[in-house]
Design a protein that fits this description.
6 strands; about 100 residues; 4-stranded antiparallel sheet; Alpha-Beta Plaits; 3 helices; alpha+beta; two-stranded antiparallel sheet
C-alpha cells in the first residue's frame, strides 16, 4: 500500500483539538491499513517520532435517501489516534 493512500485526512473536532495539547493527533486512515503501516506513514510524511498508535472503526450508518426513501448504508471509517514521542504536527499551516 502506498504511503499517500494510508492517511486520508485529519479528524478535526473539539475533542481532537483538545488532545493536541497532550501530543495526540487523529487521522482518518484506510480501513485496510494496520498500526505499523500508519506509524511508518506518519513518521515519513510529518518527520516526527511516533510512540503509540490506537485505532478504532466507526461503523457506517443507515440513511434513507431519495424520493422513495430507500435505505442506504454509509461506509465504515477507521480513525487512528497517534501519540508523538518528539516533534509536532502542524494541522493548520500558515500560508
Amino acid at each position: 500500500m502506498n504511503i499517500k493512500d494510508i492517511i486520508l485526512r485529519p479528524v478535526l473536532t473539539e475533542k481532537t483539538t483538545n488532545l493536541t495539547k497532550e501530543n495526540f493527533y487523529s487521522f482518518e486512515v484506510n480501513v485496510k491499513a494496520n498500526k505499523s503501516q500508519i506509524k511508518n506513514a506518519v513518521e515519513k510524511i510529518f518527520n516526527v517520532k511516533v510512540s503509540e498508535v490506537k485505532t478504532q472503526i466507526r461503523k457506517g450508518k443507515t440513511k434513507r435517501i431519495g424520493k422513495k426513501m430507500i435505505p442506504k448504508k454509509t461506509a465504515n471509517k477507521k480513525i487512528a489516534f497517534i501519540k508523538l514521542k518528539e516533534g509536532k504536527i502542524d494541522i493548520f499551516p500558515q500560508a
